[in-house]
Amino acid sequence: MSRRPNPVRHHAHRVVVVGGGAGGIELVTRLGDYYRRHTRAGHVSVTLVDQARFHVWKPLLHEVAAGALDANQAGLDYAVHAHRHGFQFCWGPLVGLDRTKRIVTIGPVDDPYGNPLYATRQLPYDTLVLALGSTTNFFAVTGAQAHAFALDSIQDADRLRSALIALCARAERGGTGQDGARVRIAIVGGGATGVELAAQMRDSLQALSDYRLHRLDVERDISITVVEAGPRILPPLSEQVAGSAAALLGKYGVAIRTQSQVREVTERGLIFADDSFLQADLVVWAAGIKALPVLTQLDGLSTGEKGQVVVLDTLQAKNDSNVFALGDCAQCRWHSKAGFVPPRAQAAHQQAAFLFKALALRIRQGGNNGLASFRYRDFGSLVSLGRLGAVGNLMGRLVGGKLFIDGVIARLMYVSLHQLHVVALHGWIVTLADALSHLLRRPITPRIKLH
């Protein structure tokens, strides 16, 4: 049964947003800016909770992993951003929820050496927004978690980048594999992340060669294979987009192995369901995502088959009107199609914009009456393929339904998606100034982050 907020209030309305991903950080930024300008001090408090201290737009993690992007330049510090935009930041993981008392429990934080920094804390709330995102789904494949790299965080991306550089440096002294290559990389998962990572890795490996950090011939000595369980890569997208992406990867020398179900990951490579074997020195797992396990442990909050919070059209939890959810952690109906809203950055962006208005109305009127219904609009998908550009399709009335694009135009539109996220956080003036500064630094900036 839905729990109604108490209309009698003797304190500021406390909004707690857990998760500083694409949707969460945009929501707290807009709320913080708005209530700092338009209400008397103390009327509304906004707090962001995250287990990390630093934000990078998750669709760019493959560039961080390949060394093409410096996370310190492309991201932001939550505490600094909170100070500038009128909200508070609480560092730590969500570990518990008391829906009756309206309290979230934040777990302890240790320094890199294992020494305690913050003890377990409790935060009261009047409105709670869960924006926890998702994590890698290893599908219980034997050895996958132990022997494959995932891309869930900046730390994951940095570890992968360091491993890639070290692997190439050592390969000159080693022998060759079954295919004659000295470095063998396998990327499990032919979705957008796997395809983009394969292309970006090829660019970065060439840069490492140019900088003489290894003396391997990138085309002859290094093999990259994208492994997909289905009949083609990019299964959610059209066959035209998938075919164009496959052709471009072929120009990069990236191999594609479809209809190959991984049964086990070992230190030496991949074992498939048909007992065949693919030798690999480095394995990246990009085969899928799942909801964080903590969502099923939050005081009986309703979750679906995939562990996401089941939400109504208002993005309120099905069994608690004081709790909202957005992004990958929300199971939200897609009204124009059968099924649920897909886990994409554009969905989180749209839901953050929707919730900003919904929460402002809820706070203003002290209840849930009149809250609008969220409707997701699919504007298409773009997949970056490094220096070869991008491929994808645009959707909507302006393009007459669906339009296939590729090459430089698609790449520029892909870059603009990140810039729109930056605009939502910093505004147009700061975004333009930042873009200009990056342009001016480009001649003295290395093509790949080496340290």
Structure, described:
The chain has 451 residues and is of the alpha/beta class. It has 3 domains: 13-134 and 291-365, 3-Layer(bba) Sandwich (FAD/NAD(P)-binding domain), CATH 3.50.50; 144-288, FAD/NAD(P)-binding domain; 380-444, no CATH class. The protein is built from 12 helices and 27 strands. Strand 1 (13-18), helix 1 (22-38) and strand 2 form a beta-alpha-beta unit. The longest helix has 21 residues, at 345-365.
Short description:
The protein has helices at residues 22-38, 61-66, 71-74, 78-85, 144-147, 154-171, 192-210, 218-221, 239-252, 345-365, 407-426, 428-441, and strands at 13-18, 44-50, 54-55, 76-77, 88-91, 94-98, 103-106, 109-110, 116-118, 121-124, 127-130, 135-136, 183-188, 222-227, 254-257, 262-265, 269-272, 277-279, 282-285, 289-290, 309-310, 316-317, 320-325, 330-331, 380-384, 390-396, 401-406.
Mean pLDDT: 87
What structural class do helix, strand and pairing data support?
Answer: alpha/beta
Rg (CA only): 23 Å
Give the overall form: globular
As for the number of domains, it is: 3
At CATH level 3, the topology of the largest domain is FAD/NAD(P)-binding domain
Widest sheet, order of strands:
5-2-1-11-23-22
Report the CATH superfamily of the largest domain.
FAD/NAD(P)-binding domain
Look at the structure and give the CATH class of the largest domain. Answer: Alpha Beta
Could you tell me how far the N terminus lies from the C terminus, measured between alpha carbons in angstroms?
53 Å
Q: Which regions contain 5 or more consecutive residues with pLDDT less than 50?
A: 4-9, 396-401
Task: Summarize the main sheet.
Answer: 6 strands, mixed
Instruction: Tell me what portion of residues adopts beta-strand conformation.
Output: 15-25%
Residue share in helix? 25-40%
